[in-house]
DNA sequence: GCCATGCATTGATTTAGATCAACCCCCCTT
DNA sequence: AAGGGGGGTTGATCTAAATCAATGCATGGC
């Protein structure tokens, strides 16, 4: 499906393409398509040749890996307005993860080769790409650090604090994905997540109403994480 | 200390600067300096402002993080001919890890700003940088995957296989860093590493002589990892 | 020579978290 | 209303790896 005016607006405001000129932007988007995925539907698998990068327009995409045993580890959850697989574009090789929709999801699929062509002539864009990839590197280093140096409770707390909107308004977090997905994202079992939340509740650090979690003492939790 | 002709050769053959023209290369290296670190000496700390990137000329640099508890996790071991902290250059911000010499180590310190200036005028170099950072992203994703989806034995085996020189010559690995550093690199305790190696030895998968390890059945180990 | 220090190995014990299992609750279908 | 499935919680048990502890074994200083 072709990309509508409205969707173009959204693509333009995302960080990746924000600073492109009119004609450059059009060049990248011209060959792009819109895809709509059903819940659970496959976008690509680990090992597939990498031809496109994507921007989520609505819904959620899960990036994960699967162990030989069949167990899966969620590497990232990509939401509306965020790009993914841009970092992989350059090796030209293959996607390092599986991508699946978690719910009905609309996304824009943009062709690597057109974007690469653009980069060749736009040093400034290159630098911004480098910066964003550097940020990803930082993020991944952080992740490793958390997985090895922090307990499961600390990781859960860290995740909750990350989800917190910046304003120091009512500190509440909405879990928009099923808990077992979050558990995998954190590298723990659903049961463990459940127990950790129960414990935090018992200590009055959080209150849980359905899928929203109220953080009663952000400072205390920051000290713990 | 200034950079000698000999060291320049080494810098030039490293992947980062390999494809620079004569004048470009000189521009980057002109403001660079050589540093010699004693074993254990600090190069920079996590949180220090990021002003330089580095190339190891001899010796080994350890990149690590420290938990609130004081325990440390080795994120990477950088050896002769390899660059580090180039990925961080672009955010301009701060180093995300501590850097320490493990033994007497010589390295070249190059200024971010000169390299960035160069990138601005060299789209091709930009693309190569992007590719190398993409590789780093892949590597880190792999690492996370191993830390969450694989047992300690599998990680040890994976590490040994990684260290293997490509040729299918005698499959032996030389452990050039102390075992407890490798253990941290793998996210396990030294005792556990010792036990894993003992077990592999008992199963005749490896032979250990001092600090060199002979892999008797690479295929079998590949299946296990 | 002797002692101190740091690394590695091995054994005993503990523990965080995984696994196994039962159950509930909510929503959907028929 | 009955049945059924998925997700979540809770409890009991198990296990991989951490921790604690003792010993061996080099190396270096004096």
Looking at CATH, which topology of the largest domain in chain A would you report?
A: Jelly Rolls
Nearest-angstrom radius of gyration of chain A?
19 Å
Q: What is the averaged pLDDT score of chain A?
A: 89
Q: Mind telling me the CATH class of the largest domain in chain A?
A: Mainly Beta
SSE-based structural type of chain A:
alpha+beta
Number of beta-strand segments of chain A: 11
**Largest interface between protein chains, with number of residues from each side:** A-B, 42 and 42 residues
What order do the helices and strands come in, and which of them pair?
The structure is a homodimer of 225-residue chains.
Chain A lengths: L4 H9 L8 H9 L2 E5 L4 E3 L7 E7 L1 E7 L5 E8 L3 E2 L13 E4 L3 E7 H9 L2 H27 L2 H12 L8 E3 L4 H7 L4 H13 L3 E4 L2 E4 L2 H7 L1
Antiparallel strand pairs in A: 1-8, 2-7, 3-6, 3-8, 4-5, 4-7, 9-11, 10-11
Chain B binds a DNA duplex (30 and 30 nucleotides) through α7.
Task: Explain this structure.
The structure is a homodimer of 225-residue chains. By secondary structure, chain A is α+β, with helices and mostly antiparallel strands. The first copy, chain A, folds into two domains: 5-148, Jelly Rolls (Sandwich), CATH 2.60.120.10; 150-224, Arc Repressor Mutant, subunit A (Orthogonal Bundle). Chain A has eight helices and eleven strands. Chain A has helices at 5-13, 22-30, 112-120, 123-149, 152-163, 179-185, 190-202, 218-224; strands at residues 33-37, 42-44, 52-58, 60-66, 72-79, 83-84, 98-101, 105-111, 172-174, 206-209, 212-215. In chain A, the strands form three sheets. The first copy, chain A, has a four-stranded antiparallel sheet with strand order 1-8-3-6. A four-stranded antiparallel sheet of chain A has the order 2-7-4-5. Chain A has a three-stranded antiparallel sheet with strand order 9-11-10. In chain A, a hairpin with a 5-residue loop joins strand 4 and strand 5 (72-79). In chain A, helix 5 packs across helix 8 (218-224) and helix 6 (179-185) packs across helix 7. Chains A and B meet through helix 3 and helix 4 of A and helix 3 and helix 4 of B. The structure holds a DNA duplex (30 and 30 nucleotides).
